[in-house]
Amino acid sequence: MLLVTSVNSLWKLKALSKRYWRVIIKSARTWGIVALVLIATLTAWELLREEPTSQPSLNIDSNSRTIDYFMEQFISTVIDQKGLLLYQLSGAYMAHYPDNDTIDITAPHMLFYHQVATPSWDVIAERGLTNSNGDEIYLLGKVIIHQLKDSSQTSHMKILTRDVRVEPAAKYAETQQPATLLDNYGRTDGIGARIYFKEERVEILSQVRGDYAAADKP
């Protein structure tokens, strides 16, 4: 009887043990799910906290800058101390930004004069930048520089290039971009150029190559 009771007790103990471990396993699974939910919640909270600081700053549109004056279809003529024409600057549109004293010009067109009332050089570009002094003018985009009349040394030169810096008072221009020089004698290509409007002289700075046999007239 004692043995039977012991066996029954043993079976009861085993049954209780199985139920106990089932409860433990079930509890462990439950706490595991709770832990995963808690970790996910904390992670989402941290991401929400970090989101405002990781957002990039907004780019300010240049159109939002303040313009204090503008002109359309304008023409500006500059003369020297003797009253002789130095150059003329015109364009489709001009706007002045007072924050940095910048003048933005759409479709700038320059004419250079030398001792006569008729222009000797013609310069056109897509865009121009200068300031109130006008001591330097940056011609941006495609630029075409054209000699309007022959001289004793040159013959209707035309320079095709981009991004030219002009010193109007010195009648000088330069670029670091690829440049093509066309005249009645042929074609010259290279990198960088200097244009001396008064001396009617053009220098191609580097990687110079020419074709003088079958070049078309500009």
Automatic annotation (TrEMBL):
Residue ranges that the Swiss-Prot or TrEMBL entry lists as coiled coil: none
One GO term describing the cellular component: outer membrane-bounded periplasmic space
One Pfam family of this chain: LptC
Key word Chaperone present: no
Keyword line: Cell inner membrane, Cell membrane, Membrane, Transmembrane, Transmembrane helix
GO molecular function, one term: lipopolysaccharide transmembrane transporter activity
Source organism, top-level taxon: Bacteria
Signal peptide (from-to): none
Transferase recorded as keyword: no
NCBIfam families attached to this UniProt entry: LptC_YrbK (TIGR04409)
Name assigned to this protein: Hypothetical conserved protein
Species annotation: Candidatus Nitrosoglobus terrae
